[in-house]
Structures are given as structure tokens and as C-alpha cells.
Write a structure and sequence with these properties.
- The complex is a heterodimer of chains A (about 400) and B (about 240).
- Chain A is an alpha+beta fold.
- Chain A folds into two domains: about 190 residues, no CATH class; about 170 residues, no CATH class.
- Chain A is about 55% helix and about 15% strand.
- A six-stranded mixed β-barrel of chain A has the order 2-3-8-5-7-6.
- In chain A, strand 2 and strand 3 form a beta hairpin.
- In chain A, helix 1 crosses helix 13, helix 2 crosses helix 13 and helix 2 runs antiparallel to helix 14.
- Chain B has about 240 residues and is of the alpha/beta class.
- Chain B is built from seven helices and ten strands.
- In chain B, the strands form two sheets. Chain B has a six-stranded mixed sheet, with helices on both faces. In chain B, strands 2-1-4-5 form a four-stranded antiparallel sheet, with helices on one face.
- In chain B, a hairpin with a 2-residue loop joins strand 4 and strand 5.
- Chain B is globular and about 50 Å long.
- The chains are: A alpha+beta (about 400), B alpha/beta (about 240).
- At the A-B interface, helix 1, helix 12 and helix 15 of A face helix 2 and helix 3 of B.
- The structure holds adenosine-5'-triphosphate and magnesium ion.
Chain lengths: ~400, ~240
């Protein structure tokens, strides 16, 4: 008995050491539970972060659009309905955003907004010799646009140079047309005459459909091709907090009257999948926590029964009910805490093993797991609280034990 | 007249109150013990000796009657007050299950002081070592209780009962499962404490030789006191 240590600590630790097998078993049980929770949460967080990173590397957080000519599906209607259906846009002509310079300036001044970049885009035909493809032409100001979509990082050959007569296109389109960097292709709008542009770069945007469809040119080149002189068809925006994009989009809509679509809206299906995972994870956590709580409670109930003589003796020596109560509450908390430490190491080891063993064919990790220290701290706090709560019933039972009966037993 | 260390007036105890098995075990007990009394409590098995001792030790409450310890009437006290009174005024020695197996002899003796103050300190350790020394157990102080003989364990239990310097020492057949020699050693230690510190002792025993060495003997039969004798002078230890 170290001087100065409270009686409750001394008795709780002695009882735990005395019941060695029980203590080891329940700590093992708690640590497996905590390990599973930590591994699962890290895997889920890593997967989500990875998916979001992928989605956002090829997409602006918010896109401003002119009012639509064709009615869009009414969002206010059936909630939870899939919105993945591609809404057919009118092909007749490309419409611009009214007073886009003012709108862009207003938006750029909002504190939540990081970058803005105007774009003139529309459908055109790309042809090289006999081969012709319907593609989408995107006229951008490279200085602004590359801050939102890092095209230079996605270059597979050539460079992301966009002067008046340059064009950058997706890898699949390049192979469909059989062109390489340095070749010329003809771009023909729906109305009007086509022009020849030189391919300066070929990019991989990470998605075959996009790689077959996207071509990038200078803003004024697209404006001339699409009959949008001085106008833009959309404005791309990035924001500080990607999860707040929808709120920012609504604020922009309210302030400017322009339609603003956030990546959260346009990826509604993706988000409902993420939500389903979060719900599944929470459910599993809850039930693992419950199993831990019942395990600790069971061990402590047995311990109270086994220790009833000692409890009686302690009471006869002047121990108060409160002291007995705290001895067992403390044991529950300690079991939870020690179990969570062991479980954190277990979970950490599992995460490390996963990163080392489960890899893509090219040897990179399948996805990076998030080893958030807050996850470990949270698990320790929660497991300790769970142990404490689980100990309430056994501790009350111990505290209420009739010392006469306990000693007689 | 000095205040009684222990005073019982019309103490009754029933078990199973409100059930068909309700039975009155003690039928109105009156007696008192003064400071320095050394009293044996005898009687056939089932006569209510342990029941009475548990009431006096404030581990249980009488069904009716009054019980005072060091002048404090106990019937109106709540559990907290009873615990405090028990801790400061009463020392217990039991027949079985006497020591805490997870603790050493020294720690067992320190325990009543630790419980009282909430945490151990060096003064408690010193007092426990002194008590173990008087019990002749200095070299056993770091042993776990379970590794000691019955007689040694019971001497540790006596030392522990004396830790808080109680005015009343209660012992329920403390020598019941010891051989004659070990029993006499434990008994003599209790007598020494009684003589040197004036501790009042109430001792339940079936052993007539030991009872004969007590200044006073109360006999209980079927929950009633049938005799209360005082020896004019303590008898000398009987030779077997
Ligand atoms: N908790 C209880 N519930 C019901 N009856 C009880 C209880 N405790 C004791 N008794 C009864 O009370 C009577 C007295 O018991 P007690 O243990 O006080 O006797 P004792 O004199 O100490 O006997 P012994 O010498 O065998 O230890 C017995 O008839 C016993 O059966
Ligand atoms: Mg008895």
C-alpha cells in the first residue's frame, strides 16, 4: 500500500490482480471490441476521404449555371430518390450567365470561397480525318482554372498549355481519334464553321466517360466557337470546407439569383452510400459497446459475489457503502481503460498490417487509412465510461450487501 | 458511576419479519459493560450469541430495545453514522474468514485506519508495525494472510481489531478453530490488551477453560440471559 494512494485505488487494483484470469479474459474481450471499432472506423474514414478526394480532383465544389431551359426534376419532391439520372440539356444553343463578371466578383468576396474560374463550354464535334466524335469543349482561363482542377497534374503527354490555337484532350478521345501531341484536330460547333487546333497535351481525368468527352481550350477560343462572345456558360468555385459546399451554394443562389449546384447535390447517390456506411458503422459500434458493457458487468457481478466475505469484513472494519461502491466502479473504469489501450494497439496493428498486406496490383495501398489520434482518445474515453456505467449495477449490489450475511457466508 | 462502554436495554431481534418464518431469536436482553470489563459470552449453539454480537457491533439493528456505545444511543443513527461509530469505537475478531487474502498482514492491520482516513500514511504503517510486534508477528508482516497458520492469522486479526484503539473489542469464537496452545496465546494477547489499555472485551466462546479466566461470564440460552457471574478474582490459567 503506497502512502497517499486512496483506499479505493488500492482495493480496486488488488481485487483485479487477485482475480487474474477474469481480469485478463475481460481485458482481452474489451480490447478485441475496441480494436474492431478502431479498425473499422479508420477503414471507413480512409475510404471516404479517398473517394471524396477522387471525386473532387475532377470536379469543382460548386458550379454556377444559367437558368435551365428544360425543366429539371423537382428536387423538392420525393426526397431520397436517386438523382443520378442525367438531365438532358437543350442542344440548340449555349446560354450565358447574365452579368457574370459581377456575379464572379461578388462570389469571390465571400469568405467561404477560395477560387473562382469562368468557363464557356458546349457541345462540338471533334474530327481528324474520317474519325469524328461528339465532345464537350471547355474554354477556361488556365491561371484560374488550374487552381480548381489541376490539369497539369493529370497530363500523360505534352503539357497543359492553352493559348488561342491549343487544345488539351482526354486520353480516350485521343486514342479514339488516333491523335498524339502535336497533331491538329478540327473542332466544329453546331452552327458555324470549324477551326483547326493543335493538341498540346493529353490528360487522364480518372474516368473513361470523361476522358472520351472532355477537351480544354482557351476561354476566348471557346467563346468564339460557341457564339458566346464575352459570355460564360458556367463558373467553377472551390470552397474552404468541402462539406459545407451545399450551404455555400444556397447562399450564393440567394445572393446572386444564379443557379448554384454543389458537388454534394450532384453526387447525391455517392452521399447516400456514405451515409449508409456511417449508419452501419455506428450500429456496429453501438452493439460492440453493448457487448463490452455486458462483459464487464458480468465479470464484476461474479467478482462481487466472490468478494462478498471481504466486503463484509471491510464493512465491519468501518468501510462505508460509498467506499465499497467506488472500489467496484473503479474496477469497471480500469477494465474499460486498460482494454481500450490494448485495443488501440490491436487496432493500430491491424491498420498497419492492412496497409502493408492489402495492396493494389501496382503495389500502392488500396486506400490510405486515417490514423486519427482523436479516434484512439475517443475510444479510450468511451471504453472507460462504458466500464464505469457497466459497473454501476454490480457496485450497488456490493455496497448494499448486508455485512452480517456476507460474513456468515 | 463511569459511563458504560456498552449498554443494552430490552434488546430484541426477530428474523424473517413479515414472513411466515418470522422468529424472535433474542427476547429482551439487558446488560452493560464498563470500561476495562473482560466478559465471556457463553451458551449452546443457536442460543443467539452471534446474533447479539452482530447487533452490538452495529452490523445489524435490533428489532426493538436500546443499544448505546460509549454513551451514544444508536437506534436513530443512519448507515453512515453507524459506520463511523463502528470504525472508531469497535474492533472485531471473527472465527473464520478473518483476514483480507489480497493483502499482507501489515496491510490488514493498517486497513481500519486507511478506511477511516481514506488513504494510508506512514503513521498508520508505524502503528501497524508496533501492533504486530506486540503480537509477536514482526517477521510475518509482509506475508499474505493466506500463507500463515490459523493462530498467526488470528493474532493478526486481533492486531487489526485494535488498530483504531477501540473502546470495545468484540470476538466471536476467535479461538474456535485453533488448537489449545494457539488458542491460549490469542486469549492471553487479548487479556494483555485489556489490562494495558483498558479495552473492554466481549468474547464469545465454547471453551470453559478460557471462560474461567474471564472476570465475568454471561450465559445465553434460547435468546435469554440465564446467568451473569463475576469471578471475585480472575482464575489462574487452568492446567489441562
Ligand atoms: N439471518 C438469519 N435468518 C434467520 N434465522 C437466523 C439468522 N441468523 C441466525 N438465525 C437463527 O437465530 C438463532 C441464533 O443464531 P446464532 O447464530 O446467533 O447462534 P449462536 O449462538 O451464535 O450459535 P453457534 O454457537 O452455533 O455459533 C438460530 O436459531 C439461527 O438459526
Ligand atoms: Mg455463532
Amino acid at each position: 500500500m503506497r502512502s497517499g494512494l486512496p483506499f479505493e485505488w488500492i482495493a480496486a487494483s488488488r481485487f483485479l490482480v487477485e482475480g487474474r484470469m477474469q481480469t485478463i479474459s475481460i481485458v482481452a474481450g474489451v480490447s478485441i471490441g475496441v480494436g474492431v471499432i478502431i479498425f473499422m472506423s479508420a477503414a471507413l474514414a480512409g475510404m471516404q476521404a479517398n473517394l471524396i478526394r477522387r471525386v473532387l480532383s475532377a470536379q469543382a465544389h460548386i458550379v454556377l449555371l444559367p437558368p435551365q431551359e428544360v425543366a429539371r426534376p423537382l428536387r423538392a419532391g420525393a426526397r431520397g430518390e436517386s438523382e443520378a439520372a442525367i438531365v438532358q440539356k437543350p442542344y440548340q444553343r449555349v446560354r450565358g450567365i447574365d452579368q457574370w463578371q459581377k456575379v464572379m466578383r461578388d462570389v469571390a468576396e465571400m469568405p467561404a470561397v477560395v477560387n473562382v474560374s469562368p468557363m464557356a463550354s458546349g457541345p462540338v464535334l471533334a474530327s481528324r480525318g474520317e474519325a469524328t466524335r461528339a465532345v464537350s469543349i471547355m474554354g477556361v482561363d488556365p491561371d484560374l482554372y488550374f487552381r480548381i482542377i489541376a490539369l497539369p497534374d493529370k497530363i500523360v503527354s505534352g503539357e497543359a498549355r492553352l493559348t488561342s490555337n491549343d487544345i488539351v484532350l482526354g486520353v480516350d478521345l485521343a486514342s479514339d481519334l488516333g491523335v498524339v501531341v502535336g497533331d491538329k484536330i478540327r473542332i466544329t460547333p453546331n452552327s458555324g464553321t470549324g477551326i483547326d487546333l493543335m493538341i498540346t497535351g493529353i490528360v487522364d481525368l480518372g474516368n473513361k466517360g470523361v476522358n472520351q468527352r472532355n477537351t480544354y481550350v482557351a476561354l476566348h477560343t471557346a467563346q468564339a466557337l460557341l457564339g458566346l462572345v464575352g459570355g460564360v456558360s458556367s463558373v467553377d468555385i472551390t470552397v474552404r470546407d468541402v462539406y459545407a459546399a451545399e450551404d455555400v451554394a444556397q447562399a450564393i443562389s440567394a445572393a446572386t439569383g444564379v443557379e448554384a449546384d454543389s458537388w454534394i447535390m450532384t453526387n447525391a447517390q455517392f452521399f447516400s452510400a456514405v451515409n449508409a456506411q456511417v449508419i452501419a458503422n455506428t450500429t456496429i459500434r453501438f452493439f460492440v459497446g453493448l457487448a463490452i458493457a455486458f462483459g464487464i458487468a458480468a465479470v464484476l457481478i461474479v467478482s462481487v459475489v466472490q468478494k462478498s466475505k471481504e466486503i463484509g469484513i471491510l464493512r465491519a472494519m468501518g468501510a462505508s457503502r460509498g467506499q465499497i461502491l467506488r472500489v467496484f466502479l473503479l474496477q469497471g473504469a480500469v477494465l474499460g481503460l486498460v482494454g481500450s489501450f490494448a485495443g488501440s494497439s490491436l487496432g493500430g496493428a491491424a491498420i498497419w498490417l492492412w496497409q502493408v498486406l492489402v495492396r493494389n496490383p501496382d503495389g500502392t495501398p488500396l486506400f490510405p487509412m486515417e490514423q486519427d489520434p482523436r479516434l484512439f482518445a475517443g475510444a479510450a474515453v468511451l471504453a472507460t465510461l462504458t466500464g464505469l456505467v457497466a459497473a454501476v449495477a454490480p457496485a450497488l449490489r456490493g455496497a448494499r450487501l448486508d455485512p452480517v450475511v456476507a460474513i456468515r457466508a | 458511576m463511569p459511563e458504560a462502554v456498552l449498554l443494552l436495554e430490552g434488546v430484541k431481534k426477530s428474523y424473517g419479519v413479515g414472513t411466515p418464518a418470522e422468529a424472535e431469536v433474542l427476547h429482551g436482553i439487558d446488560f452493560s459493560l464498563g470500561k476495562g470489563d473482560f466478559c465471556a459470552l457463553m451458551g449452546p449453539s443457536g442460543s443467539g450469541k452471534s446474533t447479539l454480537l452482530n447487533l452490538i457491533g452495529l452490523l445489524d439493528r435490533p428489532s426493538s430495545g436500546r443499544l448505546s456505545i460509549d454513551g451514544r444511543e444508536t437506534s436513530g443513527l443512519d448507515d453512515r453514522a453507524l459506520t463511523a461509530l463502528r470504525g472508531h469505537h469497535i474492533g472485531f475478531v471473527f472465527q473464520y474468514h478473518h483476514l483480507l487474502p489480497a493483502f499482507t498482514a501489515l496491510e490488514n492491520v493498517m486497513m481500519p485506519m486507511v478506511l477511516d482516513r481514506g488513504r494510508p500514511n506512514e503513521a498508520m504503517r508505524a502503528r501497524a508495525e508496533e501492533l504486530l510486534r506486540t503480537m509477536g508477528l514482526t517477521e510475518w508482516r509482509e506475508h499474505l494472510a493466506t500463507n500463515m497458520s490459523g493462530g498467526q492469522q488470528q493474532r493478526v486479526a486481533v492486531a487489526r481489531a485494535l488498530a483504531m484503539n477501540p473502546s470495545l473489542l468484540l470476538a466471536d469464537e476467535p479461538t474456535g478453530n485453533l488448537d489449545t496452545k494457539a488458542a491460549q496465546v490469542v486469549f492471553d494477547l487479548m487479556k494483555e490488551v485489556n489490562r494495558e489499555h483498558g479495552t473492554t472485551v466481549l468474547l464469545v466462546t465454547h471453551n470453559h477453560e478460557l471462560a474461567a479466566q474471564c472476570a465475568r461470564t454471561i450465559e445465553l440460552v434460547d435468546g435469554r440471559i440465564v446467568s451473569d457471574r463475576r469471578a471475585s478474582a480472575p482464575a489462574a490459567p487452568a492446567t489441562a
